[in-house]
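If your schedule permits, I should be very grateful for your opinion on a structural question. I would ask you to consider whether the tokens describe a fold that such a sequence might reasonably adopt. Thank you for your consideration; the sequence and its tokens are set out here.
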Amino acid sequence: MERRTTEPTAISTSRYRAELVKLMSFKDDKTYDASHSFTAEKLLSITPTLVCHWMNKRAYGDPEPNEDIRPIHVRSSIAKKAVSAFMPRLNKTWDPVTKQGNPTRSDDVNKLIK
């Protein structure tokens, strides 16, 4: 039986880690080295709102863009997949009541991608 880990495959690790580092740098307003390792506690502090603001900032240049604006910088689906690969609760849907699960699997983040 194949064992699944919370870490992405070696091929995608550097690309995915770069996205995670960008998110955490945005979150903490601090620059992290590309090889920085984040604790489970730090990863569990990520919320859907944070993910949405970060993806909006990257795609539109504004964390809270108006609906008329079109993405001009990056595609958010790649960033979502990359960050999701590092989440401690990778396969759990986000529960807005308990604020637990994988924030990239929340309704808010999924609506943003569509």
Q: What stands out?
A: Residues 1-5 have pLDDT under 50 and may be disordered.
